[in-house]
What we know:
This protein is mainly alpha-helical. It is built from 7 helices and 2 strands. Helices cover 63% and strands 2% of the residues. Strands 1-2 form a two-stranded antiparallel ribbon. The chain is elongated.
Amino acid sequence: MARKKVKLAFIENDTARKSTYKNREKGLLKKVDELATLCGVEACAIIYGPYEPQPEIWPSASGVQNVLSKFMTKSEFEQRKKMVNQESFLKERISKAEKQFEKQWKDNREKERTMFLFECLSAGNVVQKDMSVAGLNHLAWMIDQNLKEISRRIEADDRNSNTHQSENQIQMEQSLLLPLALPPPTMSNNEDIAMMSHGHLPPPPPPQPTAPNNDEIAMNNNDIMMNGGELEAIPFGYDANL
């Protein structure tokens, strides 16, 4: 369960104020102890309260004296670098609140101008509304900014569409050129015969003569010797010196 946000204001009830003081005193001393242990720094705490005759000191009187002596050895600039009092703390809070108020006021004015533009668009004309000269100037500036943003988006969409069209055209050209790069299909013997019968293919070329082997040469030599030793013809591929 989330803790309820505490209102930072003086507690009017004495009993409630005393109880809150005791609880916050214990919590503050616990936080100082955790800070010194976790971060390895020297720290001390001195709390003067209206409900005790002596101030609350942590960790001890000697420890507080040691930390204060080290602090006093620093220069005045280093001592006051991050030191605040009630006045400086309130000034810092007021400055921060003013910046938040200014930012919220600008956001509200922007939303009011936007709602007025939507009302004009819904009605189809300029709605009569009491507005100062500064408000009208700001409204004209908002309209110009919206028109520039619309033009920028239209140009971006046109560039994207042109890019997609060029990519689609390249893919289409590649798909058309792909069949031209493939080798022609081969046909089986039955298909060749069928196409030749319809006159689509020329007749096959005549067989080329092949050189005789050694057995054919030997048979030709025996034929020459049987014809009386007369050399009638020299076969193809025969060497007379053999």
